[in-house]
Amino acid sequence: MTRRYWNINLEEMMEAGIHFGHGTRKWNPRMVPYISAKHKGIHITNLTRTARFLSEACNLVFDAASRGKQFLIVGTKNKAANLVARAAIRARCHYVNKKWLGGMLTNWSTTETRLHKFRDLRTDQKTGRLNRLPKRDAAILKRQLSRLQTYLGGIKYMTRVPDIVIIVDQQEEYTALRECITLGIPTICLIDTNCDPDLADISIPANDDAIASIRLILNKLVFAICEGRSSYIRNP
Q: Which of 4, 57, 90, 150 is the 20 to 30 A CA-CA neighbour of 72?
């Protein structure tokens, strides 16, 4: 794996509040190696470990992007949804930021069928075909299109399961993580002090409730992906 310098510094992470974990009563004992202290009833994440694993994750996605691999970014809770969409669009990645539909990856044939339906309805809307239908039929199809856009809009161009999945909140996206594990898809997961660090291929200990924390982690990963894509374009 290529080793690069990603300009990850502790001061920047502290300003983003990455070091703030959950309350000491709400934690996973397996996170002990990633916790440096307790302060006013909350655990404090060891930012040196965070920097190390974030750097490893950046190296992984850079290498994958430089070989033309495809990424999926998953984060559906309110604080992460918009950040996930912006990061994915910037890095030309697929994303899920509303609701993870069970079997989205493990039952790919069903997902593929839904995507075909989604694309067909989008085409019908763009060509005006929906407006030429009886009002009742058009209304039903438009509701279907709206629902598909909400849940599948971020993966509308995905033609196969992704090569790497980036997950913003392990607890929130546990179903997605289990599907990746079942299929053997490498995962990068942002984990707070209430998570299991042994589930993902690379777990990045960080505050998964603060917008600034999520944004910083995603920005670093997206920058690495964009750098890798540029390398792929220059050296096809």
A: 4
